[in-house]
Amino acid sequence: MRKRVKTLAMSLVLTFAVATPQGKASAQGILPKPQSYAPAKGTFHTRGRQVRVENRVGDIARNIYSEPWMAVSKGGARQVMIFDRLSPKSIAGLTLKDGAEAEAYQLHVSPDTILIRAASADGFRLAWATVRQLTTKKGVACCDVVDAPAYKWRSMMLDVSRHFRSIEFLKRQIDAMARYKFNRLHLHLTDAAGWRIEIKRYPRLTNLAAWRPYATWQEWTDNGGKYVEEGTPGAYGGYYTQDQLRELVSYAADRGITIVPEIEMPGHSEEVLAAYPELSCSHEPYKDSDMCPGSVATYDFMENVLLEVMDIFPSEYIHVGGDEAVMKAWDNCLLCQRMMKELHTDKAGLQAHLITHFGNFLNAHGRRLVGWDEVIASRLAPNTTVMVWRETDLARKAIEHGYDVVLSPGDYCYIDRYQDAPITQPTAMGGYLTLKKMYDYVPGDDLTADERRHITGLQANLWAEYIPSDEQMEYMFWPRAMAIAEIGWNGAEKKDYADFHRRALAECDTVRAMGIHAFDLRHEIGERKESFTPVKHKARGCRVTYNTPLHPKYTAGGEQALVDGVRGGWTYADKRWQGFTGTEGWCLDVTIDMGSIQKLHEVSAVFMQSLGPWIYYPTKYRVSLSEDGKTFTQVYSQDQPQRDPCRVGYRTQAWHGSRKARYVRVQGSCDTEFGWLFTDEIVVR
Ligand code: ACM
Ligand code: ZN
């Protein structure tokens, strides 16, 4: 037994000794925070020491990462490291959540003993992640830890379609994710911008649909979104061979991480339809975005693809996407129409039929379906997991259907949004999602305790439309992934952001030492400073008449919000900006009644631009004044038919002058089909 442990330890030294640097760990610095941690005096010294390893559990410790000081097990050493079996019943004082047994562990470190008790290889590996964080140059800090996860699905999603990522990049993230006790990596392998997985039966997916003539997603979409043959000079893209993916799966598994592959259907499939146009309703490339769910060819194709996918990925769950199908081409497709008639259903029902088919197909092959929350409409087996990315109310709906839920709501988990003052950051999707906002997320806070039992996990998503490089991807990923790690492991009951922030700062140094380009949390600027201080002005509390409607989703708390003295932050999503839309005439048109005729010197308003969510500065802007509310005199006008090239910005439009008036009218126009206009406090002085 001892010999086996020694051999094992030595081979692991070769494999893993450089995988994670020893940071300046402090006993108080574990991230994610353990459920129970009691520091003790002293250190289990490792420098130049002989440590006897006693494995009382046999094979179960096989995947433990090792350290050079563990390689000696001759006996006679004063210090001992013991691996022992934990029966979940014996875990002191900790109530385990359903399914948490395998990942639970107990750890005791005293100056001469490290005792790790766990019920499975996963438990030992996770205990070892804690030991690593307790390790300083001297040794392992003494303590007692009793620990188990709050959620059994702790995951990050990487979009490798919009911009292709190297295998080395993926391995770096896996190394760091293992340190923070993640257990799944979801790879978004297919989307319009490129198919990234070799499928031997369908070579056009990778010798055409993985390549494009423009390196950035933005240039590519601006220039028609076409693909080019592999090998075309200047072609951008790439794909993972099946051998590369198998090796990656094994690399991740050694670190306790299951890779969940996502193969999108039926929407987000432009690249598939360019390579195999017969799978679209029109049978023409570059016309439709969804596969034809009325055609048997689609089912054959996807089954064949999934067979190869399942052969590469042992994951119990296979993600089939299911989100955002446009369904437009289905209206005029004879096959789609025929199938809807046969099934007595509509387009949503047709999509549900397709997803149900693939749920059954995966089940028949011993796998389970996971999909975005659009799959709720399907008739799937109760072993399905739904990833809720839109309104959290959909979690309740999924649970009513008997499905498990992984929460991934945009407002808290979409890390393609800006993590700091947008004007200081590389281009992102828009929004403003700080480490703190993610940390403050309480999963399922609107659900009952019974419903919450179906929340099996938490995931953050990194969509990559605006992320051309590995470095920028890491910048968006870290440290925000740590917030998901913390909630996913420790739960959301005992929040203390100051403590988490302190630990995250130290861990940023550690991930940097691992070669990761993390965001500079130490120099975070934070929220828009104007939003902290109420602004005093003459129109505060005055009556506002909306000559065109305010969008009901973006009222900022009601009509009065435009003159309440409270200014918005960096994002419209903070519910402090009012939103207007509509291409006809003025989309913003309000009149403020000042109550009496007064001498006015200034009327100003701030507008936001954020190109990701189609928010633009007004193309036309007017301020008019009136004494009687009937006859208005225009005092300020500005026309800007050209869009500002900057992606995100905040612009003040102000009239300055001197006039008597009681009524102030402010007008702005949108002038694009999808466009939005967001404004905040209208200040009158
Ligand atoms: C999604 O963001 N469309 C899942
Ligand atoms: Zn069709």
Automatic annotation (TrEMBL):
InterPro entries: Beta_hexosaminidase_sua/sub, FA58C, Galactose-bd-like_sf, GH, Glyco_hydro_20_cat, Hex-like_dom2, HEX_bac_N. Its EC number is 3.2.1.52. Residues 556-669 form the F5/8 type C domain. Residues 151-491 form the Glycoside hydrolase family 20 catalytic domain. It comes from the Bacteria. Residues 29-148 form the Beta-hexosaminidase bacterial type N-terminal domain. One of its GO terms (cellular component) is membrane. SUPFAM superfamilies: (Trans)glycosidases (SSF51445), beta-N-acetylhexosaminidase-like domain (SSF55545), Galactose-binding domain-like (SSF49785). It catalyses: Hydrolysis of terminal non-reducing N-acetyl-D-hexosamine residues in N-acetyl-beta-D-hexosaminides. Keywords: Glycosidase, Hydrolase, Signal. Residues 1-19 form the signal peptide. Coiled coil: none annotated. One of its GO terms (molecular function) is beta-N-acetylhexosaminidase activity. GO terms for biological process: carbohydrate metabolic process; glycosaminoglycan metabolic process. It is an enzyme of class 3 (hydrolase). The active site is at E324 (proton donor). Belongs to the glycosyl hydrolase 20 family. This is beta-N-acetylhexosaminidase.
